[in-house]
Amino acid sequence: MTLLEAIEARHSVRKYKDEPIHEEILVILRDRIREINEKASLHIQLVTGEPKAFSGLMAYGSFSGVKNYLVMVGKKGDDLDEKIGYYGEQLVLLAQTLGLNSCWAGLSYSKIPGTYKLDEGEKIGCYIALGYGQTQGKGHKVKDIKEICNASDVTPIWFKKGVEAAILAPTAVNQQKFYLEYLGFQDHSKVPSVSARSLFSMVGYSKIDLGIVKYHFEIGAGKENFKWI
User: Fold this and answer.
1) What Cα–Cα distance (Å) separates residue 42 from each residue in 107, 138, 190, 208?
2) Which member of 142, 160, 167, 189 has the greatest number of CB atoms within 10 A?
3) CATH 3.40.109.30 correct for 145-228
4) Global pTM?
């Protein structure tokens, strides 16, 4: 499964089978987490075989059977939420290619002492449930493309493909509070520019959403075709 196929196949799943994640898959996930933590200065942690985080008083949202999850941790800063979204979605799509299901969780979990570590200046941004779903989930309603970007008859095909991938990105309560803009060639650059911004949200989590959206856009558009501005 390619990453683009994973984007199309992946849906949020809240109910999981009572089946441990296969060890060979855990090895792949842990290796990738290690790489991301080193590259992005994050402190993402994989917890396995722990049933309490998604079964306590805070675990609303119809979760059941969750025993494996990612604790998305990093140093406090203005860019932390976007980094969590961008790199967390890399792990979510990797998990999908490995036959796992997943669900981003902003509030619907309990922090279980001893299952994670916070170094000085760090905080938890969110959790991501992982495992073998009872179903593969279902697609969500998406906005019209005109609401989320400035694609037109004159914007490049790669931009439109990026938008098509971005519109399938998971966002908090499916709010899709983002806007992508093709800016063309700026400051004599040989590579065209694209901007991505989050819009006002009463729900919150729009910066995490933006990171997820940007990763999806890169997969659809091809990172070599543009630069972020």
Assistant:
1) 20, 31, 32, 14
2) 167
3) yes
4) 0.96
CATH 3.40.109.10 applies to domain 3-131: yes
Using one digit for the tens of pLDDT, what is the confidence trace for 51-79? 999 986 666 568 999 999 999 999 999 99
Q: Give ranges for CATH 3.40.109.10 in the chain.
A: 3-131
The pLDDT-based confidence of 108 (bands split at 50, 70, 90) is confident
